[in-house]
Amino acid sequence: MRRRTVLLGTLFAAATRLPALAAEKQLVILSSLPSLSFPFFVHMQKQLRAEATKLGSISLLETDGQNSAPKQTGDVEAAITRGVNAIVISPLDVNALAPAVQEAVNANVPVVTIDRRINKVPGILAHVGADNVKGGEAQGEAIVAAFPGGARVFHLQGQPGAGPAIDRNKGLHAVLDQHKDKFTFVFEQTANFARDQALSVTESGLAGLARPPDVIVCANDDMALGALEAVRARNLKGIRIYGFDALPEALARVKDGSLAGTVEQFPGEQSRIAMDIAVAFARDGKQPASKLVLLTPIVITEANLDKAERLSEMP
Question: Residue 17 above 70 pLDDT?
């Protein structure tokens, strides 16, 4: 009886240690983001790091693409050589990064793309992002609601080749092109998601127009804030400016009325979901419930600031 009791006690102790032992499996995961000079990606990196810490026993290799496809490609290739357990990546250029991501997939490294989706690589574990087409549509619908009689639209597009830029442009046009008799694009040009470029492009664009536009719509908040600087420098009034990303600084400008609105795409939630999927597969071989997870963006205005993910960070 004593031997049976000891044996049962030993088995029970071992069983209770199993979850802890499983949780202690050390993982090395690469996080690769396009450029940490953009506040949007800094926030995503912080959330990836926080989720990795929460899940435990993860060594996170945080890399900065420095707005260079060759740099980001090199980071991915180095991670493959090192033998990382998973990669979470937002590609700077979905086409330029496709070969490196394909190399990772071929090396049996699970890859989760985030924010920017690569369609040309089969075998990616999952993509987590916002439905940027719907985000662009939301911008368009907000403009239609604000200008029922029509408007002259000044449009700052995102970085060529970037999935979000392509999709946001597509969504915006899908809505406004239905009302071509009332909504006219008087200016469209990329400012590469950059505030300084948006400032200079907006200055040049406004100088070339016979009269100011009614609305300036931008594919991200950095460009919206750059456009706002240009508008203020010319002392123009009544132009409604819309951004995209719901950065804390943009939220503050929405609150004080300087910006008409911005689009919330929940980047923190995207980051946490992506890390969860990567870790579950790397640690336990668990396939994601869906290989495509798209969050639905919403337009944030002064009326619904409480819906913003980063409201507490607003200056």
Answer: no
